[in-house]
Amino acid sequence: MWTARNSEGYEAPAALAVDTVLLTARAGDLLVLATQIDDGHRALPGGLVGAGESPEDTARRKLAEKTGVTDVYVEQLAAFANPGRDPRGWIPSIAHLALVPPDTKPRDPDAAWITARGRHRWAFDHHDIVRTALNRVEGKLWWSNVAVGILPASFPLSKARTVYEAIAHTHYDPATFARDLKATGLIEPTGETSAQGPGRPAALYRFTTRDPSWGAGRRKRMAT
Amino acid sequence: MWTARNSEGYEAPAALAVDTVLLTARAGDLLVLATQIDDGHRALPGGLVGAGESPEDTARRKLAEKTGVTDVYVEQLAAFANPGRDPRGWIPSIAHLALVPPDTKPRDPDAAWITARGRHRWAFDHHDIVRTALNRVEGKLWWSNVAVGILPASFPLSKARTVYEAIAHTHYDPATFARDLKATGLIEPTGETSAQGPGRPAALYRFTTRDPSWGAGRRKRMAT
DNA sequence: GGTCCTTTTGGTCGTTCTGCCTAAAAACAG
DNA sequence: CTGTTTTTAGGCAGAACGACCAAAAGGACC
């Protein structure tokens, strides 16, 4: 059982942790990176925040260790600090949300992509963290450029639609989706076209900005 | 300079803090409770989380000390844990958002209501925390029953409109506001009417639920 | 080349939502 | 009783939304 005391003699947190919900979308499914724990439970990738380090930096550092990916979309989710959440001691965790392209391979042999909405036996309060992450990314989908984290620099609208459908967990009409996403002003055509497979070649688009920023998008009612 | 070490010998946070953005709306203005610090800066009410205490409980305990109010709407905002945010040492803070009715009086003589959107000289990173709180409450306004925290159990639509206008920082047409708020399903008529002052007496409404819950409301696009 | 199939994409149509407006209902002041 | 004020119901035009249709533009196969 970890404990700590500060220089005033009062009890202090034993450590400050970070847990990251790393999401991606593949074949219409939303996936989350999870490591396997000895007792069969799943756990989110995370680690301890070092002195002089910001929690977001910790999240990025740990993600780089687990997947080798750098330049990831990372944002803070919430703090999970209820007493007893970690059996090792008083260890608050600052949960983060991160998104990566679907071709990202885990470097850690114990880590694997599992369905984000499937029922899994999560360790600690990680089930709550995952649920919070899903709510967050769903809510932001049409109001921001979160999908930037999953999509490559240049993409056809059908690819974007697959990602949006995986996140929103619904089905969009292709024509309507194209009209609405273009209307948000979040994307712009690159001028290029791609033609792999049958069918008319699709025009490629890019996000007008790859910097994550709230409130950039517009409209689109919530799914009923 | 506060420091702490855990039982493994590694450096740990010196303490875990809570800062609360306590908001209310009065006369069309959004107000925040701030205490005055020696050097003239403003600071948010807050305190240290005790061992075995949840941060939200800490926020409620501190608010009760400062204002005497219990049964407050409190939700977690975000963690502010950048190194150097607190000159006293490594002290992450979990910021909270709280809402109270406008007749709440501060008990602490150093605490006072100040305009939430005014330019003030905030201490530490409290300016960021206030801004985050304003964004949060604005975003949730039409999608949840956050306004429950400010409005009394029973209220006329004009009162609700004043609160909504203070939060959204816009002006709503009275007729349109009534139509739209009723359409959200968040409120229901009590059957009573109130007639103070001139004009047709207003029907009184209550929230269908006073439990804070995300996603209960519907529609209403973002303000352009 | 010709035919069929596939996917993209522009447009239409009816429904719903939104912002603005008008006017009636229902109180108070003089 | 007459004017004033506030609430509240309803109308109307424009925008947004969802579903659909059809043309465009490629590949696959004969």
UniProtKB/TrEMBL annotation, chains A, B:
SUPFAM superfamilies: Nudix (SSF55811), Winged helix' DNA-binding domain (SSF46785). Signal peptide: none annotated. Residues 13-165 form the Nudix hydrolase domain. InterPro entries: NUDIX_hydrolase-like_dom_sf, NUDIX_hydrolase_dom, WH-like_DNA-bd_sf, WH_DNA-bd_sf, WHD_NrtR. CDD domains: NUDIX_NadM_like. PANTHER family: ADP-RIBOSE PYROPHOSPHATASE, SLR1690 PROTEIN. This is NUDIX domain-containing protein. It comes from Svornostia abyssi.
